[in-house]
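Now for one record:
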Amino acid sequence: MEINVSENKRIVEIWLTNQEQEDDSISEFVQNTADKYSDKKYKVAVFMSGDNDLFDCTEGLIEHNLCL
């Protein structure tokens, strides 16, 4: 798990691996951390690793954005 806090932008980023996503104690910690910072008017973003191929996903996102 990685937690990045930007005081000047009031943003909290929480990064989780696949294994961490399955751990109930980590999920509870993430929820408590998100609640704590939300109460302080921070925006909280939780990023979770996936199982899909990064190249294929990025390619699909770029193709989609080109059509907008």
